[in-house]
Amino acid sequence: MSSAFLTKTHYLTGLQCSKRLWMSIHQPESAAEIDSGQQAIIDQGTEVGRAARKLFSGGVLVDNPPDEFSSALARTQALIADPSIPALFEAAFEHGGVRIRVDILERLGPGRFAMREVKSSTSVKDEHLRDMAIQLWVLRGCGLDVSSVALVHVDNDYVLDAPEIEWARFFESADRTREVEALLEAIPGEVRGLRDLLAQTSVPDVEPGSHCKNPYACEFWKHCTADKPPEWFAAQQRARAELRAHRFEAARSGEPWVSGSLAVTLEPAEPPVWYLDFEALASAMPIFRGTHPYEALPFQWSLHRLGSRGEVEHREFLARGDVDPSEEVAESLLAELSRDEAPIVVYSSFEARMLATMALRTPNRKRELDAVRGRLVDLLPMIRSSVYFAEFRGSLSIKSVGPTLAPHVRYDDLGDVAEGVGAAAAFVRIATGAVSGAEEERLRGALLEYCKRDTLALMEVHRALRGLVGLA
């Protein structure tokens, strides 16, 4: 690695985990593929970054691609030398074996600049300070007088009240010059350490742990935990001591743990019963008037119904996307659930929150929506307190519990939409007109199939739990 360059990403990755950095360079094929949800987050960050450039009128983009870094360096220097250019976007710099591209470099005056890092988050986080520090170190190492460092992020209090987003109100700028400068002293040693690390011929011996998820989920998690026994995953869970012991023993022995109180726990969900799942958008950039960044708005629901004699029905709804979906989602859901007063099984508190959101946005239906919320029965805490299988591998998500308790329920055969973030991104594409015709119909079909799979899984998990205590 002696002649190669670190990037900002390498630096931040190495601070999180030396093994992750080493593998990203020497063994990248071991990384998990980026799924649709992760790609949606990446795309959203890119979109926010582009929007922030609108705050700096007259700015010029250094548009040389990553594999033409030398050309980007030359282009950057030419623009810096031109005092008529008020700002540079994606300016390229190199110092001390580190290469960076700066989101926004603002000219403050003759020979003076400000660095503006753009994030799609709604606040400043510790990892953002490290991100800005390595950039400031490179900039000053290149001889630039950078007197101001700020994070430009989304203002969560902004409400869309005009046909188009007002970017000056949408973004908030947080000056963090002092905090970032305080981190500069350690950077030379950190850079040397990371370069020495990458020069090693063998992978660092780092045990998986909480750092694998913080501040970012590691793409090598599955690789690094592939040889871990089931009890290792159970031991990682933050649960009450006695419950953790039950999980650990079930994982070690391979024998399921089922609490003696499970039958009583399940009593509030006796058939006939409904199973409900929402999908909601939470776009950084609000789409509908009266909404703010990242506001969760349900746009779709799926219902399965299990009758007292075992009969099964399915109903579903997906909003058009041309208007705020709150009213049509509420109306369609209430029309179905008004058939009876049966309990409604959900998985986590998400559906309760979405019903509360719809009640606020459709006050004429608040009483009925509140009544529906009162019928909810959450299956997740029942499982958390009463059941553990080794095959859960420490996870109680429906995508882990479902295929374990009901093996015929799968998620690996789904196409473009296979998790919630990807579903939200797909609906945003529909709502913003990014797709139409056959492509829109394909996405709508994928959305319906995914949401249907979740309520099917929920119903089958419930039936399996009832079977464990002889109720089915």
CATH architecture of the largest domain: 2-Layer Sandwich
Tertiary shape: globular
User: How much of the residues is beta strand, in percent?
Assistant: 15-25%
Outline the low-pLDDT stretches. Answer: none
Tell me what the structure shows.
The protein has about 475 residues and is an alpha/beta fold. The chain is built from 19 helices and 14 strands. The strands form 3 sheets. Strands 1, 2, 3, 4, 5, 6 and 7 form a 7-stranded mixed sheet that branches. Strands 11-10-9-12-13 form a 5-stranded mixed sheet, with helices on both faces. The protein is globular, with a radius of gyration of 26 Å. It folds into 2 domains: about 5-200, Lambda Exonuclease, Chain A (Alpha-Beta Complex); about 260-470, 2-Layer Sandwich (Nucleotidyltransferase, domain 5). The mean pLDDT is about 95. The protein has helices spanning about 10-15, 20-25, 35-50, 70-80, 125-140, 165-170, 175-180, 185-200, 220-225, 230-235, 240-255, 260-265, 325-335, 350-360, 365-375, 380-385, 400-405, 420-430, 435-470, and strands at about 5, 60, 85-95, 100-110, 110-120, 145-155, 170-175, 255-260, 275-280, 295-305, 310-320, 345, 375-380, 385-390. The relative contact order is 0.11.
